[in-house]
Amino acid sequence: MTAFTLHTPETAPQEARDVLLRIQASWTFIPNLHRMLAESPVTLKAYDALIGLVGQSSFTPAEQQVVYLAINVFHECEYCTSGHTVLARRSGLSPDVIVALRDEREIADLRLETLRRFAEGVVRERGFVGDAAVEAFLEAGFTRAQVLEVVLIAAAKTISNYANHLTHTPLDPFMAETAWVAPGNRGQAS
């Protein structure tokens, strides 16, 4: 396995240092994902910018977490599923919805289930979900802007999920109680 460095502001390439310092000041620590992405300052900056833009989307924080978790679970990203479970709790998303997302089970709340299905479909079908799926999404009370904001979140999660797969980013300590094992790895976990 190729080892990737978990950079600090002192070890990161110069172009990544300000981003890491800003994250540290905001979060009081630097998540391992960001430390690993610092190897490529342009990738770190792209991910950081996209995540910031998601925060400006018209989705509520809880709805954002539904989309994040749906995509993380679909991509089988253990790091992001574990981390977004913590963020989903902080957003006020109910525990039963979080469990359903992590276990790939139907969400009882029809609107959130529609959101989950649409987000997963966009990723699975690479955007080719068809007009019926878009119409069902709109009929559930979402907007045309939110159709495109799902794509924004998918772009951010594609960067982090794929990078984590390639680099085997270790979980941060705050994720210990929310650790998640991807279905494809469950036979290997013991």
From TrEMBL:
Superkingdom of origin: Bacteria
InterPro entries: AhpD-like, CMD-like
One Pfam family per UniProt: CMD
Record domain Carboxymuconolactone decarboxylase-like: where: 44-108
GO molecular function term, any single one: peroxiredoxin activity
Entry protein name: Carboxymuconolactone decarboxylase-like domain-containing protein
Organism: Methylobacterium aquaticum
Classification of source organism: Bacteria, Pseudomonadati, Pseudomonadota, Alphaproteobacteria, Hyphomicrobiales
